[in-house]
Design brief:
It comes from Gorilla gorilla gorilla. InterPro entries: Colipase. One of its GO terms (cellular component) is extracellular region. This is Colipase-like protein 2. It is found in: Secreted. The chain has one helix and four strands, in the order H-E-E-E-E. The protein starts with a helix and ends with a strand. It is α+β, with helices and mostly antiparallel strands and 100 residues long. The protein has a two-stranded antiparallel sheet with strand order 1-2. Strands 3-4 form a two-stranded antiparallel ribbon.
Length: 100
């Protein structure tokens, strides 16, 4: 019982709470640097070939070029927004986001 009271007193005083930086980070917004697509609110961590890093980018809209989500950490081209499917309508064209 005494240990529980000490813990409650510590939490109330702020002594037991972890530092804000130690808490899980919120999802990153568009243009923030990233290492994995799961870090981004959009779910797309796009490779930046100019700087050698990666940044959070929006998902592809209708008729935009796309690639399905890969198992890798970063994307070469972003996957489609929710409700769209990344398909190729003919063999000569690249994949694009379409409503099906």
């Amino acid at each position: 019982m005494a240990a529980a009271l000490a813990l409650v007193a510590g939490v109330l005083s702020g002594a037991v709470l972890p530092l804000w930086s130690a808490l899980p980070q919120y999802k990153k917004k568009i243009t923030d640097r990233c290492f994995h697509h799961s870090e981004c609110f959009s779910g797309c961590c796009l490779m930046d070939l100019d700087s050698g890093g990666a940044f959070c980018a929006p998902r592809a809209r209708i008729t935009m070029i796309c690639l399905p989500q890969t198992k890798g950490a970063t994307n070469i081209i972003c996957p489609c927004r929710m409700g769209l499917t990344c398909i190729s309508k003919d063999l000569m064209c690249s994949r694009r986001c379409h409503m099906i």
